[in-house]
Amino acid sequence: MTGPSATPRRPLPGRTVATYLIWIAAGAAVLFLALTIVVLTNIDNPAGADLRVTESFFTAGIDHPRLFSLAEFLAWFGGARNIAFITVAVLVLAYTRAWPWAVFFLGLSAGSIALGNLVKFSVGRERPPWVTHEAPQQTLSFPSGHTLTGITVWCAAALIGWYLLPPTIAPWLCSTFLVIGLLQGPARMILRKHWSTDVLGALLLGLAFLFIAWSVFLIWWHRKFATTSARGACDGSPHVAHPH
């Protein structure tokens, strides 16, 4: 089920790191739930820091047309285009027989999109008043879908690339993916599409989902290949640390 391309070019974090990440993910999930309650409490009248931060990004886009154009460029990589990127990435991973990584990426990205949409429809928050959207998009502001998939698609792609791509390519391509992913939130606020709490909520939800998925993957990986190594030692075959 696995091939040479499934073998990491760099050592994967151990189970201890995976345990820490689960705790961090749990903390992010709790903060997301708390923020969701705050949003629901003030759903008809966003004010205070939320309004001020949102207006500051909106004003920056108006005052600096080039910044607005950059935000449009970055946001182009989000939304429905993520489906095409996910499809291509999974097909490439499957073609190169990196099956564990393909399953990890597909489960993470598709699962986060489904969960994000479930929350959007459940909360039903109106978008900022500066731009009008067609129904039902007008009431699907929380959490920001672009920001969420920026973490669970683009940052996840950077994570996978860091371990699978050659060292000469990985830093450049993974840095590009990270920039695209992390700047989705600010870009959407500059474009007047979301409140600041929409972006913050998506960041918390995305990090929780990513860290949980990565932790499960790491625990599975080490358990599988620790067992493989033990079997190899028992029957006298060479030590196996990674799939081939």
Taking Cα atoms only, what radius of gyration do you get, to the nearest Å? 20 Å
How many distinct beta strands?
0
Q: Report the structural category.
A: mainly alpha
Low-pLDDT sequence parts: 236-244
Q: What is the domain total for the residues? A: 1
What is the general shape? globular
The averaged pLDDT comes out at 88
Portion of residues in beta strands equals: under 5%
* Helical amount: over 70%
Taking the sheet with the most strands, its summary is: none
The span between the termini is 9 Å
How many H/I helices? 9
What is the H-and-E element order? HHHHHHHHH
Can you offer a commentary on this structure?
With about 240 residues, the protein is mainly alpha-helical. The protein has one domain (about 15-225). About 70% of the residues lie in helices and about 0% in strands. It has nine helices and no strands. Helix 3 crosses helix 8 (about 185-190), helix 5 (about 100-125) runs antiparallel to helix 6 (about 145-165) and helix 8 runs antiparallel to helix 9. The longest helix has about 40 residues, at about 195-235. The protein starts with 14 loop residues before the first helix and ends in a 10-residue tail after the last helix. The model is unreliable at about 235-244 (pLDDT under 50).
